[in-house]
Amino acid sequence: MKQNKLILIAIVVIGAIFAISAMLYNQQQAEKKQQLAEQNARALTPAHAVREGNPNAKVTIVEFFDPACETCKEFHPLVKQLMAQYPDKVNLVMRYAPLHPGSDQMVAILEAARKQDQFWHVLELMFETQQYWAIDHQAHPQLFWGYLKGYGFDVERINQDMQDPSVVSNIQQDITDGELLGANMTPTFFVNGKPLATFGYEQLQQLVASEVAANY
Amino acid sequence: MSNNPTHSQSWTWLFTAWLIAAVATLASLFFSEVMKLTPCVLCWYQRIFMFPLAIILLIGLMPLDTRVVRYALPLTLLGLFFTVYHLLLFYGFIPENLRPCDKTLSCADASMVLFNVVPIPLLSLAAFSAIAVLLLKIRKHP
Questions:
Q1: A22 touches B at CB < 8 Å
Q2: Which residue out of A2, A5, A7, A23 would a mutagenesis test of the B interface target, given it has the greatest number of B Cβ atoms within 10 Å?
Q3: Which helix (H) or strand (E) segment is A65 a member of?
Q4: Domains of chain B in sequence order
Q5: CB A142 within 8 A of CB A132
Q6: Which of A37, A53, A86, A126 could form a disulfide with A67, with the two C-beta atoms 3.0–4.6 Å apart?
Q7: Which residue from B11, B15, B34 is facing A25, i.e. has the nearest CB?
Q8: Residues A86-118 pLDDT 10s
Q9: Helix axes B5-29, A2-39, angle to 10 degrees
């Protein structure tokens, strides 16, 4: 029985070492993310980026997203809900992070549609139909064009504007800034320049709530 | 059973082997789940043979059943085989087949190196060979 006790002690000890080092590692990573965001604060909200909500709001959520990302799709209604919860106090900046293969075309469609003020409509359509064109973590823009056409968007103009130098450079800027800020997963959120310590909707909610409380 | 000296010795050896397997399992989970390092294909094969060792060696301890060696040794030797192959690849003794670049990881990648010093497959070699030696000892003097 002494032996069984020894086994139990060993399990507890290595389990505890695992848990503690995981906690320390995550803490360290969170600090690193925070530092990265502070050092590159100017890369968060450039003038060209898509902005939604009161431009003078004192709380800004920055979301790096990929239209082919399932979690971005799941978060979309939640972020809208957050915006509705604090009208005028919170605004949202959307940044492209086309991490999936094929997503570069999808964000080009979005940025081109933005020229017709259709960014949000096209994004909603992308998320709604995501399962049909984003297959096995790969975006298939050719499958999405059909939906665009079907819903009466000006497909030809979008196609033309995708080559527009401003469209190309805006997307490139987002990609560069995302790399600079360590946004290597989507969605990546920053609230008033602060990254989420750990990922999750509740964490986002809490961070927004605390920033609203601090600024109003 | 702890009165029997050879039994008690086998227990210690088996306990040590299990401890190594458990630590190796948790370490590998730490690399993938906490540090978010994606395991390469050969790492996966080593994991496949290490993870069950942490469980069956524990079962062999409670109560002591030295026949566990019969089941654990093949897993250990297969794991060892993949580890040696991985190390040969890592140090460039055998070339990784040329293939078009994609998102999957190279098994000879620098991200296999922990703290810029210890290659992860080297840790795996240490663990698998220590377990193999201990199990062989138990097999000789059960």
A1: yes
A2: A7
A3: strand A59-65
A4: 5-140 (1.20.1550)
A5: no
A6: A126
A7: B34
A8: 989 999 999 999 999 999 999 999 999 999 999
A9: 20
